[in-house]
Structure formats: C-alpha cells, structure tokens
Amino acid sequence: MPPVAACRRRTARDRPWWSALAAALLGTLSPVADAAGTALLTLTLPRASLQAVDLAVLVAEGDALSEAVALAYQQARGIPAANIIRVPVPTGSDSISDSDFATLKTAIDAQMPAGVQASLVTWTQPSRVQGAGCAMGITSALAFGYNPVLCGGCARTQASAYFDTDTTRPWTDLRLRPAMMLGAATLEQAQALIARGLAAEGSVPTGTGWLVRTADAARSVRWTDYPALPSQWSAVPGLSLRYLDASAATSPQEVTGQADLLFYFTGAARLAQLASNRFLPGAVADHLTSFGGFLPGGKGQMTATAWLAAGATASYGTVEEPCNHPDKFPRASVLIEHYLRGATVLEAYWKSVAWPGQGLFVGDPLARPWAHTPAATVEGDVLVVRTRSLRRLTTYQVQLQPAGSSQWRLLDSLSAGQPRPVVWRIPLPADAAGGRLRWLGPCPLRPVDRCVLAEG
Fold it and tell me: If you ran DSSP here, which 8-state letter would residue 14 be given?
C-alpha cells in the first residue's frame, strides 16, 4: 500500500471549546457512548464543497449595477458582511492594464478575510487583464495574480495546481482563490441567475447531458474525452449522458428542442438554435472557441454569457486567442465527476481546466445540484457512513486504534465506483469503545496518493 500522510493527532483536551461547533459545520460529529453517556469515539468526515462563508463578494464601489447585484447575492446566499469587499474599479473599459490590476488586487487582498477561499465578481467590465504581451481572464488573474506565464496566445501556459484535486480549501492549501464572474448585464438577469442557483441546491436533478463533436474539427478537439462517458455514468440515477458525433458536415450541428439540459459541451464559434432548449437549474454549458470570454462582443463569436442568457447556470470562455489546446478548456469528464460528488459549480469548473490563465469563469459560484453533507453515525454496534463525495475508482478505509494501543487496524475498505449516494455499514468490534477512528482515502492535493482525511 502507498505511504499514508497522517494528520497531526490531537486529544480531546487539546481541542478548544469551539471545535465541536466547527465540526458540526464541516461534517457530522457522531459519538459512540457508554452507559453513562460519555462520548468515547468520534469521526468527522471532510466536507464536500465550499460554503457561503468561504466566498468573498467583490463590488465595484459606486457602480449601481455591481452594488445591486452584490446585495442581491449576499441576501440570497447569506454571505457574511465581512466578506463583502468594495474597491474602486475602472468599469468604463472591458480590459484593465496589468499595472492597474495590481493596484486593484492589492486593495482587494487588504480587505480579504483570512479564511475566505474563493470570490465572486459582480461587475462585467473589466473582464480581462491586459499586459504588454498577453491577456488573462480577470477571474484567473484574481486567483493567481497577473503573470505572463499564464497567458501568451497559442503558447503552452502554466498549469493550475488546483486541477482535479479534492481540496475544498484552495486558499488554505494552495494559496489561490478561484473566482467566478456572475456575468449578468442587468439586475433582472442577475436575479434570475441567482434564483436558478438557489433552485439547484440539493435538487439531485433528472436530466440529460450532451457531448457534441461538430464538423468544426479545430474546435472539437475535446471530443476524445466524450465517447466513453455515457457508459461510464450510465448507473447514475437521473443522469443520461449522450455523445453526438456530428463530425460530418451533413449532420445537424446543434442540440435542439431539449427540455432537460444539465450539461452541454460542444465546439463551435456560435450556436444559432440555443434558445430552442431549456436548461435545468444548475446546468453547465460551454463551447470551445477562441473568444467566448472576450466580453461583451466575443469578436463576432458567441460569448460564454450567451449560455447564461439562455438559462445555463455557469459557463466558460477564453479572453484572447488561446489556440485549441484542450487543456485550456474544461474537461467534461473531470467537471461532471466533481459536480456529481457535491462540489459547487465554481469548484467543478475550475478543477476541470488544467491551464486556466486565459479563461473567464461565469455564473453562480455556489450552485450545487448534488449538495450533501457527508456523515458518519453510530447505529447500535455499526458505524454508518453516508456520502456521495467518494472519488471514482478509488479505495477508502476506516481504521480503529483501540484504547491503550498505538496501532491502527483496518475495520473495512470500500472501492468507490461512480459518484452516487453510498451507505457503508462498518461493524464495530467490542474493543472500539474508548478508541479512535480514522478515515483514509485519496490525498486532497495528490489523489494518486493516500492520506488520513479525518481522525477522531
């Protein structure tokens, strides 16, 4: 078995009085009790996603639309007042210079509460940061800072350490705060988008995802990720993924007349019949093209915000010519897995792009159609784990350290298949009382390795 990176052990006496409250917010604290009611055994599972308290809302001070959108989002999501950050933003242009952006980011960072993990941009201008040689999407620049190694036209760009990880605390673990722009041109559009995000919460929707290879070969380079997905995800209740090979010019190039869209990934400069479809709350959709994130006009191509106007809850596009490197665009297999495991759409989208520097992420960052709280509870002499956040094709373990022993022993292991609700019943031996439990699985930052994810 690969080495286990263990967490630092703490006794109950080491923990401050607020630790039980914090545990209740992040997971489920479940005791095994003796006859006197004394808690002897606890296990708190890692949380499945970011929470409202983790999100900062960035406001262009004095801009009426930004102020109104920020207030609407704060009230709808319960964002703490300390997380509302007002800064002077030059909103008269679609781009901001790298030097002016550095000043803006310094002002944001000075107000940012230490525990905030991600941010929401409530303006649409500026949407990109322009340096001497290349442009970054403002959401990526807020996460990484402006850096030419993250943009530069058709060049390979620096990879994101956040890609396909399991961390739910990117600032704490990686010192980056992924950002998403709400992307609404009016308050009415913003309110409709926020309503969709709220309606998605824990809805576990029944719908369809379309993975489309078009006749535009240059823009359909992601297609190799698509054909295997319908069968891989066929056992997920409520979700039907469909691969459409429209690589022949005579084939219909768009999905039309669908009433239950959850995912739509395609390669095209623009879509003419997007309005014929209906998106479900929490739906994700994007098209691989050069200027989908170049707001407002996309240089004649369809923009990422057009998906939001059509009813999607989140989308993505690039702000300068990136060429068609697949790693500069969302990978459907990664996005879908993280989303179904309970991640917010901000997390699922960001974790699906390996080289996101030229990208702009838009939508409601806290949308979570598959929201849930992983829990470990004791029912008689059985520990019952309930979760849907297990990584696909990965093994998890529960181990016990009996009272008075320095050794951990395996109680049970589970090989996870597709992300789905799991109820895992683990018999507790007679010597469990007074002992300690721990939860092992893929390391949050390097899933190929194994880590102690929780320890009682």
Answer: G
d(CA 210, CA 262): 8
8-56 confidence digits (pLDDT tens): 333 333 444 333 333 333 344 334 344 332 246 789 999 999 999 999 9
Q: Which two tokens stand for residue 159?
A: 């990879």
The pair of structure tokens assigned to 252 is: 């219909």
What's the rounded Cα separation, in Å, for the pair 90 and 101? Answer: 10
Tell me the three state secondary structure of residue 306.
Answer: helix
Query: How much helix, strand and coil, in percent to the nearest 5, is found in the chain?
Result: 25, 25, 45
Q: How far apart are CA 448 and CA 393, in angstroms?
A: 11
Beta bridge partners of 208: 240, 261
β partners of residue 414 = 396
One DSSP character per residue, 159-185 reads: PPTTTT---S-HHHHHS---EEE---S
Query: What pTM value is reported for the model?
Result: 0.90
How many CB atoms lie under 10 A from the CB of residue 37?
7
Tell how strand 239-245 and strand 207-213 pair up: parallel
For 425-438, letters b (16+ CB in 10 Å) and e give ebebeeebbebbbb
Q: How far apart are CA 226 and CA 329, in angstroms?
A: 14
Model confidence at 164: pLDDT above 50? yes
C-beta of residue 152 within 8 angstroms of C-beta of residue 133: yes
**Token pair belonging to 71:** 């207030």
* Bridge partners (DSSP) listed for residue 33: 39
CA distance linking residue 160 with residue 314, whole number of Å: 20
| Cα–Cα distance for residue pair 80/181, rounded to 1 Å | 19
Q: What is the DSSP letter of 134?
A: -
Spatial distance between the Cα atoms of 356 and 141, rounded to a whole number of angstroms: 10
The secondary element (H helix, E strand) that includes residue 87 is: strand 84-87
DSSP letters, 253-299, are -S--S-S-EEEEEEE-S--SSGGGS-EEEEEEEEEE-TTTTSTTTGG
User: What confidence tens digit (pLDDT) does each residue in 88-127 have?
Assistant: 999 889 999 999 999 999 999 999 999 999 999 999 999 9
Residue 11 CA from chain centroid, whole number: 33
Report which of 356, 435, 373, 385 is spatially closest to residue 140, judged by C-alpha positions: 356
Rounded CA gap, 239 and 213, in Å? Answer: 20
Residue 128 CB neighbour total at 10 angstroms: 26
